[in-house]
Amino acid sequence: MSEAKTWNVLFLCTGNSARSILGEALLNHHGRGRFHAHSAGSHPAGAVNPLTLRVLEDAGLPTDGLRSKSWEEFTVAGAPQIDFVFTVCGKAAAEACPVWPGKPVSAHWGIADPAAAGGDHETRLRAFRTALHQMDNRIRLFLDLPLERFAREKLRAEFDRIGGWDGT
């Protein structure tokens, strides 16, 4: 009997300080053993947003090892071979989303940038909690997919469906 495949997933965003970090933390938590999630940014902020860490800790999720990093780390020799790439940057025309080279199945799971939320601390914290909830819902749908049984085109269609899901 062969060992089950561990899938490598990369969540991409511009700054890699909030949304992509949430994806990495959630998938590593919920997909233990089956997935190894990573995150990166096209123009990394250099640090994880403190409110990202706060909402993850409030949800009981580990934050050890989370860091803001460039997507270029995943293009060098010795980097993990990525199976799936999800861009999580918002749909605003002014926001740049990196294009991932290679052959992983990819999709866009746009989530509003909580780091761009204005207002008082509670309003900003609510934006981070909303982003966490949206990402958690999408990851749970992703985890239910029979990845081994779907052809590449079917996977892409399912990933797009999940990316368009608004939680209602």
* Helix content percent band: 25-40%
Assembly level: single chain
- What low-confidence regions span 5 or more consecutive residues with pLDDT below 50? none
Distance between the termini: 41 Å
| Strand composition percent | 5-15%
Please give a handful of descriptors for the protein shown.
Rossmann fold; four-stranded parallel sheet; 168 residues; 13% strand; 33% helix
SSE blueprint:
Layout: E1 7-13, H1 19-30, E2 35-41, H2 50-58, E3 84-87, E4 105-108, H3 121-143, H4 152-163
Parallel strand pairs: 1-2, 1-3, 3-4
Helix pairs in contact: 1-3, 2-3
Task: Please tell me about this protein's structure.
There is one protein chain. The protein has about 170 residues and is of the alpha/beta class. The protein has one domain (about 5-160): Rossmann fold. It has four helices and four strands. It has helices at about 20-30, 50-60, 120-145, 150-165, and strands at about 5-15, 35-40, 85, 105-110. It has a four-stranded parallel sheet. Helix 1 crosses helix 3 (about 120-145) and helix 2 (about 50-60) crosses helix 3 (about 120-145). The mean pLDDT is about 90.
